[in-house]
Amino acid sequence: MLELLLPLLGNLLPGILSRVLPAEKISEEYAAKIQHELTMTLINQDWNQIQAEYADRNSARVLAAQDIAKGNAFTGMLAAIVRPLWGIGAFILIVYSVLSHSPIDGALQSIITTVLAFYFGGRVIEKITPHITTAMTKE
Q1: I need a labelling partner for 124 at 20 to 30 A (CA). Which of 21, 22, 29, 105 fits?
Q2: pLDDT beneath 50: ranges in the chain
Q3: Which among 67, 87, 83 is positioned nearest to 75, based on CA atoms?
């Protein structure tokens, strides 16, 4: 429940404090301190969700590696090329559509958008998250 309320409080609390408490009762320094603490709580909450997602992806990769180890070279190759084939195939279909000026059906376009978002978005997150983790731990 707190996860749902924190982003809402982050937007409302500064306005409420400025309206409810007169300037004489709360100093600018104290108001800034409250705002800073709330902002840091929101950032930490978001960061914890990102770390949990990254750990979940990592455990999925470990499980996938264990499953691949149970198979032979052919099944290992298939497991390794599925995602790139879908991503590159969807990208080629878009390029063909643009070059030939032929529209893509709406349902197929939704599938292509999803495939490209998962392929390229997933790869970006996998590559950037370790750098962000390193940068956050240095501070």
Answers
A1: 105
A2: 1
A3: 67
Amino acid present at 129: T
Q: What is the Cα Rg of the chain in Å?
A: 24
At 85, list the tokens: 């084939």
Using alpha carbons only, give the angle 80, 81, 84 rounded to the nearest 5 degrees: 120
Neighbours of 112 (CB within 10 A): 20
Give the separation between CA 13 and CA 31, rounded to whole angstroms. Answer: 10
Ordered alpha helix ranges (H), 1-105:
2-20, 28-70, 73-100
> Would you kindly state where each structural domain of the chain is located, as residue ranges?
1-70, 72-139
Grouping H, G, I as helix, E, B as strand and the rest as coil, residue 24 is coil
| Cα–Cα distance measured from residue 71 to residue 45, given in angstroms and rounded to the nearest whole number | 40
